[in-house]
Amino acid sequence: MADVKVIQTVSEMHRVADQIRADGLQIGLVPTMGFLHEGHLSLIGRARRCADRVVVSIFVNPTQFGPQEDLEAYPLDFERDRMLIGDFGGDLIYAPDAEEMYPEGYASYVDVEGLTRHLCGASRPGHFRGVTTVVTKLFAAVKPHVAIFGQKDAQQAAVIRRMAQDLNLDVEVLVSPTIREVDGLAKSSRNFYLSPEERQEASVLYQALQKAKCLVADGERRADVVIGEMRELIERRPLAQIDYIEAVDTADLQPMEEFSGEILLALAVQFGKARLIDNLVVHTA
Ligand code: AMP
């Protein structure tokens, strides 16, 4: 296994990033909250292919969790993550602690409007403000040429793309496909919370997305019909509690009543302690 250096301070991260850049090399960043799975590893692989040095950040960002959310319980296994990162081609881990990121007196936040109005932006107030703030800070510390995000968090990827464009950040934002279990459940650190029964039922999320895709392929254009069918399928699972099911335009993430063009079907469903999200892009043409 390659020896993966761990950096915990902004000043050390700046020094190392400046050195890599001075050597004429490209930096790829994969931001994560740790407890890595194949989804994260696929992003590291993508970064490896498009950059010379791959930095994986591990930071469970308190500002993106609401007061009733799972910050305290979020799963961690730093040593396992470190081994996986080495095995899958990461060169450096940037793992600051909360004090380093948000010292006493911290007062600056980044907010993206519009794209954050619906989906998780509506059901997790303040969440994206925390995400865009921490990603800005990670970009500032790591100075990446390219940063890789997962389509699994489609709204997050769209918001970060918009932020990078609006704030003229000199970072290329790439989005990689969702990696799934064999039954279609999207890999997620939060799947760890699922009981065996919840885990079994959770495959309904993918089934609902596939059902929607079939309906659209068969010519259905009414959002309420498609969403109604998805809802009906998920509600048959007794352990599932729907947070939202929405259909939005991929361009602006605003709800669509009549489908045309490219539509993002997105859902969030609670199974016990785990709030799971998933999505699929469908086309009418
Ligand atoms: P997280 O650690 O959950 O904050 O995720 C870190 C990055 O991994 C984000 O860009 C996620 O979108 C991405 N990611 C999480 N799960 C998956 C997955 N199943 N497939 C692809 N990317 C993922």
For the structure shown, list the relevant keywords.
285 residues, alpha/beta, Rossmann fold, Pantoate--beta-alanine Ligase, Chain: A,domain 2, 2 domains, six-stranded parallel sheet, three-stranded antiparallel sheet, binds adenosine monophosphate
Count of alpha/pi helices? 10
Outline the low-pLDDT stretches: none
Number of domains: 2
Q: Which sequence of SSEs, written as H and E, runs from N to C?
A: EHEHEHEHHHEHEHHHEEE
CATH architecture of the largest domain: 3-Layer(aba) Sandwich
CATH top level label of the largest domain: Alpha Beta
The CATH topology of the largest domain is what?
A: Rossmann fold
Summarize the structure in words:
By secondary structure, the chain is an alpha/beta fold. It has two domains: about 170 residues, Rossmann fold (3-Layer(aba) Sandwich); about 90 residues, Pantoate--beta-alanine Ligase, Chain: A,domain 2. It has ten helices and nine strands. A hairpin with a 2-residue loop joins strand 8 and strand 9. The longest helix has 16 residues. The mean pLDDT is about 95. The site of adenosine monophosphate (AMP) has 17 residues, from helix 2 and strand 5.
